[in-house]
């Protein structure tokens, strides 16, 4: 997720094949490797980028299911961090990104200047990042939802990893967040600790909740976990346009972000029914959470979750095929 955030960890694999793209220190740059189906003679193929958080995986699962079962395509999915995904999309190594949380630098480079990527329309879901505490803690300390009172409660959030300060739990180190700058600029007695991934963060949140322990966590909506662990957002200084322009000086809340789709320019023009379908793909937060809950909590496979959603929402997806 990236809105200065690269966001949310299960790997969706294609029913035919999957290619996992690893990025980071010491990892090979595989963004130039094309889909296994790219040169299949006469094949109708689509390659979708899938981000590591479950909401993005839900988009891809449903899109893949309908492309395969209704339009007769073979679909390949690749998992890659958010910024490298833009590079792969520009190069035509993937055809579409279905959930982008805002990458203005990449958008300017590839959409405005190079014109190798085009906007694919809104996803229909509005994303928001924030700091959250469990609602059971708010009932004990109602004023804890104001950032100005966090230092008063910092001792409640200490962990062995937080070095004597309160712990602010983040997800993957690959997420581009403002949290370290916020802690510094708001002069908070907290230390950002990375759980390692969305899945690890969810596990930690569930453990804290089971024991009714205090926790402060970077989190986001939409997210199915709120149905299992009620959380309340801590009010940070109000977001104003441009307040996050300088990453080192950020001292405001994260904005609400209408999530967007992007397509490779060549695919958008020549991708036929698949491209037209992906441009029309648009659903609600409730739809996404329904599929995410099935994948992450009920442990259905992405394909099983997609089929179950498709079977129950015919009127929604039929419009995407018209």
Structural category is alpha/beta
Query: Helical segment tally?
Result: 11
Report mean pLDDT, rounded to a whole number: 88
Overall, the morphology is globular
Most strands sheet: 10 strands, mixed
Oligomer: single chain
Percent helix among the residues?
25-40%
Order of helices and strands: EEHEHEHEHEHEHEEEHHHHH
Distance between the termini: 30 Å
Strand-residue fraction? 15-25%
How many strand elements? 10
Could you tell me the radius of gyration in angstroms?
A: 20 Å
SSE inventory with pairings:
Blueprint lengths: L17 E3 L24 E6 L3 H16 L4 E6 L2 H10 L4 E5 L3 H10 L3 E18 H6 L25 E5 L8 H7 L4 E5 L3 H13 L5 E6 L9 E4 L21 E9 H6 L1 H9 L4 H12 L5 H11 L1 H8 L1
Helix pairs in contact: 1-9, 1-10, 9-10
What would your notes on this structure say?
- The model is unreliable at 2-41 (pLDDT under 50).
- The chain is globular and about 60 Å long.
- The longest helix has 16 residues, at 54-69.
- It is 34% helix and 21% strand.
- It has eleven helices and ten strands.
- Helix 5 links the parallel strand 6 (166-170) and strand 7.
- It has helices at residues 54-69, 82-91, 104-113, 135-140, 179-185, 198-210, 265-270, 272-280, 285-296, 302-312, 314-321; strands spanning 18-20, 45-50, 74-79, 96-100, 117-134, 166-170, 190-194, 216-221, 231-234, 256-264.
Task: Name a few traits of the molecule.
322 residues; alpha/beta; ten-stranded mixed β-sheet; 11 helices; 34% helix; globular; disordered N terminus
Short overview:
By secondary structure, the chain is of the alpha/beta class. 34% of the residues lie in helices and 21% in strands.
């Amino acid at each position: 997720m990236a809105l200065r955030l690269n966001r949310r960890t299960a790997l969706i694999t294609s029913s035919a094949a999957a290619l996992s793209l690893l990025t980071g220190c010491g990892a090979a740059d595989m963004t130039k490797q094309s889909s296994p189906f790219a040169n299949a003679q006469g094949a109708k193929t689509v390659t979708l980028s899938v981000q590591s958080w479950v909401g993005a995986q839900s988009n891809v699962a449903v899109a893949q299911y309908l492309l395969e079962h209704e339009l007769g395509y073979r679909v390949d999915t690749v998992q890659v961090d958010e910024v490298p995904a833009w590079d792969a999309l520009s190069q035509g190594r993937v055809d579409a990104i279905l959930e982008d949380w805002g990458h203005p630098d990449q958008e300017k480079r590839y959409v405005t200047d190079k014109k190798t990527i085009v906007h694919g329309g809104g996803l229909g879901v509005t994303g928001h990042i924030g700091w959250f505490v469990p609602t059971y803690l708010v009932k004990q300390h109602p004023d804890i939802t104001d950032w100005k009172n966090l230092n008063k409660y910092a001792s409640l959030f200490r962990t062995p990893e937080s070095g004597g300060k309160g712990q602010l739990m983040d997800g993957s180190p690959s997420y581009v967040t403002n949290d370290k700058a916020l802690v510094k600029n708001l002069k908070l007695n907290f230390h950002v600790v990375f759980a390692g991934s969305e899945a690890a963060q969810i596990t930690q949140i569930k453990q804290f909740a089971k024991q009714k322990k205090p926790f402060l966590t970077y989190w986001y909506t939409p997210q199915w976990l709120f149905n299992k662990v009620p959380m309340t957002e801590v009010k940070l200084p109000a977001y104003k346009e441009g307040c996050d322009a300088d990453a080192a000086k950020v001292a405001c809340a994260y904005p609400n972000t209408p999530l967007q789709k992007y397509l490779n320019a060549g695919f958008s023009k020549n991708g036929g029914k698949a491209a037209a379908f992906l441009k029309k793909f648009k659903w609600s937060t409730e739809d996404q959470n329904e599929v995410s809950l099935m994948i992450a909590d009920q442990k259905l496979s992405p394909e099983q979750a997609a089929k179950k959603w498709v079977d129950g929402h015919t009127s929604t997806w039929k419009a995407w095929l018209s």
